[in-house]
Amino acid sequence: MESKNKNITTLTVPVIGMSCASCAGSAETIASQTEGVIQASVNYGTGNLTVTFNTTKTNIETIQQAIREGGYDIIIEDESKQQATLEQINEQHFHDLKLKTIWSVLLAIPVMIIGMFFMHMPYANYIMWLLSTPVVFYFGKDFYINAWKQTKHRTANMDTLVALSTGIAYLFSIFNMLFPSFWQQRGIQAHVYFEASTVIIAFILLGKLLEEKAKSNTSSAIKKLIGLQPKTVTIISKEGTEITTQIEQVKINDIIVVKPGEKIAVDGIVISGNSHIDESMLTGEPIPILKEMDSKVYAGTINQKGSLHYKALKVGKDTLLAQIIKTVKDAQGSKAPVQKLVDKIASIFVPTVMGIALFTLLCWIIFGGQHAVTQGLLASITVLIIACPCALGLATPTAIMVGIGKGAENGILIKDALSLEITKKVNAIILDKTGTITEGKPQVNDAQWLNNEAINKCILLSIEKQSEHPLADAIITHLHEYELVPIQHFTSITGKGAKADFNGKSYYVGNKQLMLDNNIVISNNTQQIADSWYQQAKTVIWFSDNQQVLGILAISDKIKDTSIAAIHTLNKMGIELYMLTGDNEHTAKAIAQQTNISNYKAEVLPQDKALFVKQLQEKGKIVAMVGDGINDSTALATADISIAMGKGSDIVMEVAKMTIISSDLSKIASAIQLSKYTVATIKQNLFWAFIYNIIGIPIAAGILYPINGFLLDPMIAGAAMAMSSVSVVSNSLRLKWKKITH
Predict the structure, then answer these.
(1) CA 236, CA 188: separation in Å to the nearest integer?
(2) Which has more confidence, 137 or 742?
(3) Where residue 122 falls among pLDDT bands split at 50, 70, 90?
(4) Other Cβ atoms closer than 10 A to 736
(5) Is-same-fold flag (8-76; 230-318)?
(6) 52-69, pLDDT tens digit by residue?
(7) Which of 278, 343, 432, 640 is catalytic?
(8) Cα 603 versus chain centre, distance
(9) Is 50 exceeded by the pLDDT of residue 249?
(10) DSSP labels for 206-255?
(11) Best CATH choice for the domain 8-76 from the list 3.90.940.10, 3.30.70.100, 3.20.20.240, 3.40.50.150
């Protein structure tokens, strides 16, 4: 990521070794406190650290060393290898976790059966001790190792809770087994709780296994996008032979062959052949698009039946697909505003729970009666077990990851979590006209000539060839079959048109004002035709010699097929729509009427667009600005939500917080709907995570015991804690199946 200060660098790297949301807080604190680090943020949902640091004071290796000392690690390999390494580590971790879970469950089952039904059989306690020991000290050793690392850094996380609860239950059971007389002399039965510590570890490992499986599904959008790019590509050598090579070897200007059914390897431009290309994986649009000479093609899209030769224009990190992958990764790793509050709660959650557990034990000792110590100890252990910071930590990032991934799959590229969260609040949308509502490809669709002499058309073509006016290309395309003639003294007349000489005679091309300024005669018939074109939202280009109008041409920019329906949907949603355009009043009014936009402004300068955004914001509106040209970039930067049309300028796509890759306006309504679904999912997740802990912890402490004698079994608490995280992730995954089309 670039920075204005060349000594300031921002990197996003994967963190490994985290087991809960509190771990993310610990790793973030360690990174933040490293000398030279300006800002650090760890997202538990994505497992990424985003760190900004001064390269003159520190480097990523120093930051890695500090994080390692805290019991975690980061992968700092080259970006191309990073993903493969991370996948390898994750696969190995999942495999190890699976084995630990299976063995823990197999050993925990007989311990639970003996502890519940055959506790009086000979050597029952010793058999349970024998079976429990490998579960606690081998399959569950990571809990104790991580808890010790946290303690050394004066922090605590979920591993601390698990280590304390199971460790105390295990040691308490050994003491009771070896010295039962200590309790019997005091009139108390000496119970063992090997099944509690064993089953708890088994349940928590099972919960972690399910959580890892579910979390891997939240990042499936990234995996799909990465999988779009082929590994090999066929290029044509200088000798004209076809060579198959690795995609990393492709260079700009290489000529690439793509055959039917193959994927486009890199971004480029077609130089021969024609075919239909399926771009749905990038745009979300199902209809294949015809590609012929000079058409642009994009990496990851699929060629249909024809064959193409195309020249590579962007390779590696510069392709549209690579940019999309990077944007989705960055967005999934960013934190929504609500997440900052949750992070604060998670950071004090574990110490608070430890305090509650200690308070529970003291209350039982003081008020508990005959079996106060035993029951108090069990209640405090149950409090430690049932508390779940993971459910809180996963609530927001998993929903954000799935939401942004779903957007990418539907051709809506969202740059950060904040944009996804506030898009639902948008109540005013400003639309640029050209390229946003319309195609942005002006075409000559009417022409009226005084006489049909070919020379006049040749002169007009020759003048427009030298013109820099944006409508010149439309006229050149219209007159492409005519020949150029040698014109002299070409002069551009700002805001009006151009003038040139041919065979000693002056010719003018431009607007009507240019004709009036030079006293050119306009016949009534010509004026009537021009007026009728103006009423149809067409731009009229006037062409004359130094005496009279020789011809007029009508140029119009076709309204996109989807624009009218999209605007109708946005109107139905109760959103105020405004159209701002630099075009004339006639055209603006006609487009507004055809699309049913009641608020519009014509002949608006770029700086006026930004001013208009501010005016709406001052009225309390949450404003989205939609545009596709460089002239929209200031207004986009000013708006609360900036939306770029994907086939527009690179600068606009850089400024915008959201990009509609297909340039289809109907995707804006889909983005608003996606935002509503995602925020609703975050609220549901947080509600259940908080409710779970608010209800679970007091019950675990024994609040119901004075009322009905109920004490929560530590094993049940372990199962409930394990499933709370899984339920939060599963709820986020429901977003995948939501329909966001209108």
Answers:
(1) 87
(2) 137
(3) confident
(4) 15
(5) no
(6) 988 888 888 888 888 888
(7) 432
(8) 36
(9) yes
(10) HHHHHHHHHHHHHTHHHHHHHHHS-SEEEEE-TTS-EEEEEGGG--TT-E
(11) 3.30.70.100
- The closest alpha carbon to 166, from 185, 144, 149, 148, belongs to 144
For residue 649, pLDDT over 60 is answered with no
Q: Which of 92-96, 169-173, 280-284, 560-564 has the lowest mean pLDDT?
A: 280-284
Q: Which residues, 6+ apart, have CB-to-CB distance to 712 below 8 Å? A: 382, 386, 699, 700, 702
> DSSP state, 104?
H
Q: Which two tokens stand for residue 183?
A: 């309790």
For the stretch 330-350, pLDDT in tens is 766 666 677 667 767 766 777
Where is average pLDDT lowest: 117-121, 431-435, 616-620? 117-121
pLDDT number for residue 3? 43
Q: Report residue 569's pLDDT band, with 50, 70 and 90 as the boundaries.
A: very high
Looking at every residue in the chain, the average pLDDT score rounds to 83
CA–CA dist 299, 323 (Å, integer): 11
Amino acid at 681: T
Please indicate whether residue 78 is annotated as part of the active site: no
- Do the beta carbons of residue 332 and residue 405 sit within 8 Å? yes
* 8 three-state secondary structure: strand
**Nearest partner of 303 among 330, 331, 329, 270, judged by Cα:** 270
Confidence (pLDDT) at 414: 86
Torsion of CA 14, 16, 21, 25, to 10 degrees: -70
| Separation of alpha carbons 129 and 193, rounded Å | 10
The position carrying tokens 């209800």 is 695
Backbone angles phi, psi at 533, to 5 degrees: -70, -40
Residues 6+ apart with CB under 8 A from 611: none
CB atoms within 10 A of CB 246: 9
DSSP class of residue 437 equals I
Domain boundaries, the chain: 8-76, 88-220+329-402+678-737, 230-318, 413-439+559-670, 443-556
CB 32 within 8 A of CB 93: no
- Strand ranges across the sheet with 505-510: 443-449, 549-556, 539-545, 505-510, 497-502, 488-493
Q: CATH second-level architecture of 413-439+559-670?
A: 3-Layer(aba) Sandwich (3.40)
Specify whether the CB–CB gap between 205 and 97 falls below 8 A.
yes
| CATH, range 230-318 | 2.70.150.10
Angle between helices 194-218 and 714-733 (to 10 degrees): 0
pLDDT, position 4: 44
| φ and ψ of 182, to 5 deg | -55, -40
- In angstroms, rounded to a whole number, what is the distance separating the alpha carbons of residues 364 and 378? 10
Spatial separation of the C-alpha atoms in residues 649 and 628, rounded to whole Å: 6
Q: Identify whether the C-beta of residue 292 lies closer than 8 Å to the C-beta of residue 266.
A: no
Cβ-contact 652, 627 below 8 angstroms: yes
Task: State the DSSP string of 577-601.
Answer: EEEE-SS-HHHHHHHHHHHT--EEE
CB atoms near residue 311 (< 10 Å): 15
What's the token pair of residue 601?
A: 């402004």
Decide which of 189 and 596 is more confident: 596
Overall fold of domain 443-556: Calcium-transporting ATPase, cytoplasmic domain N (3.40.1110)
pLDDT at residue 650 in the model: 60
341, two tokens: 């509050």
**Mean pLDDT, rounded, for 143-161:** 78
